[in-house]
Amino acid sequence: MPVRQLSETTVNRIAAGEVVERPASVVKELVENALDAGATRIEVATDGGGRRLIRVADDGAGMTRADLDLAVERHATSKLDGDDLLQISTLGFRGEALPSIGSIARLTITTRHAAEPNAWAITVDGGVKSDIKPAALSEGTRVEVKDLFYATPARLKFLKSDRSEAEAVREVVRRLAMSRPDVTFTLASDERAPVMWPAALPGAAGRLARLADILGSEFRLNAVEVRAERDGTVVEGYAGLPTHTRANSLGQYLFVNGRPVRDKLLIGVIRGAYADYLPRDRHPVVALFVTLPPREVDVNVHPAKTEVRFRDNALVRSLLMHALKEGLARDAQRAATTGGTATIAAFRPAALPRRGNFDWRRSPSRPLPPRGAVAAWSTAEPGFAETAQAVFDVGSAAATARVEITEPAPDLLDRPLGAARAQVHDTYIVAQTRDGLVIVDQHAAHERLVYERMKATLGKSGVARQILLIPEIVELDTADVERLLARADELNRFGLAIEPFGPGAIAVRETPSMLGEIDAGALARDLAEHLAEWDEALPLERRLMHVAATMACYGSVRAGRRLKPEEMNALLREMEVTPNSGQCNHGRPTYVELKLTDIERLFGRR
User: Fold this and answer.
1) What is the reported pTM?
2) What integer pLDDT is reported at residue 405 of this predicted model?
3) Domains of the chain, with CATH numbers?
């Protein structure tokens, strides 16, 4: 077959295949154009998931008649001052979006520039450009895309349902709205009710307000501000607490110079920064913004501009890691507020049955009965108030609930975790604060304390060890024995000395002294199981932290152990000064805080 020159229409449609994958791609290109035009208000409307209609209107600078005529030509752009592709300071620059969209759909652009007496409109139908005509528009630009992919019907069968495509459009607008909190965004579709994100104040407070509007108020309450700067590169944003996680990584939003990206390098750094806090099946929620000189990043890697390449990967990686670790270490004593909300919801009583006459005994605001008179005041169907009063009555406490009835020291009530008042089921510590109460899982809390102590000791002088008078022989599967012996040097750094003891067994000769008396055999078996799951590619530091976390679990106060009041208070005080004490080594919260106002709502006092 001889070589021939492709027609302009065919070239445009090939380019459209690279730029326009689905309706969300069109919305992304058009909204980015609006932002580059200086818009402060952007409205997006779709029909049929964007298949039948996409309309993007803004109040930006608009275009003159001459600019409008060139805007729908290939490789025409207003976003490059010259031919330097390394000096990109705008979101769009390729000059392919509008002609590519016009080649596969019916595209209409209406725009008005401040220097023009009226607005102008142009239509591109399947690659055929119409004449420019006068139009009515007060300001900015309005772009309408109808019958997407009608000129390339084969692409239609690759689209998903209208609802799925509409959700993809929504996600694109959400990401762009996060990057520009100073712009008002409105999104309307036939699938959902319209939503508007109003412009926020400048600065960190405004950015957090916009993130809360999009990600929910829970993110605002459980977010940690992070920031780091070096050599002109700035990393800032918000990272969710380790106890505020999701089952997938879709809650990780990354931006480079205001451009939403999905960069594998940055996602890997986030995973590494949270490795010391989360189990492998949980993912953090973050919104991070990287700002650096345009010449230090290549945004011309992918036609859809969703991937970037950094000139100095090590600088960006280390700066992001430092920002996350510093922020988490600063605020990781906090536990997610969602734990308290879920606890309140679990306590909330079911609605009482309605009766003809009001029964004062069922009123949650009635006066409390004298001690010992609860049973006499109760009815055949006791309400939540009666049951709760009976449980907290110190005169009839259950055998598994030990109550400290002495008056707590006033200074302890002002501490973040308050004063210990009771131990329930020999597992949970109930502490009182000035404005509520705190419930602590004693094992999870002490597990984190031992882990942090072990890390600190390892970094300073190494872990002290105790020699067993009689080595403990542990029988294991041959494969488990090989895994443990292959990691013998790493285990030895933490004070666990093991040796081979014939086929299918090891001898444990030394254990970390800070763990006290432990079941060395159970620890060795647990470590063998974890080693089978760990990635061989993990760096040594990460593997050592996994070992430390497992050992800490065996050296912690176990559930079911009775604690004295002074022991409980000592545990609370140590939690307040220990980094990352808001969650255990497995990512579970170590305590739940209940505000007095929330508890009062349960009883109708508010």
Assistant:
1) 0.70
2) 55
3) 8-197 (3.30.565.10), 204-331 (3.30.230.10)
